[in-house]
Amino acid sequence: MEEYDRLKKMVEEAADDIAKAFGGNKAAGTRVRKSMQDIKNAAQDVRKRILEIRSATPK
Question: Residue 25: is its pLDDT beyond 80?
């Protein structure tokens, strides 16, 4: 599922900035907060897709 793959990629890409933010880099912290918002939205897309799949599956 491409939505889930996109979500995983986004989390992996945020890893470096997360380490920098915990090291005290304020600019990295700003990037992490933006990345986390984007990740939240991507997770919601995955959730919606799963619900679509579940609704389309005959009972």
Answer: yes
Residues 6+ apart with CB under 8 A from 39: 7, 10, 11, 14
Mean of the per-residue pLDDT values of the chain: 94
- Please tell me the total count of domains within the chain: 1
Rounded (10°) angle between helices 26-56 and 2-22: 160
Burial class (CB in 10 A: 0-12, 13-18, 19+), 7: buried
What b-and-e string marks burial along 36-58, b requiring 16 or more CB atoms within 10 Å of the CB? eeebeebeeebeeeeeeeeeeee
Report which of 2, 56, 6, 1 is spatially closest to residue 35, judged by C-alpha positions.
Answer: 6
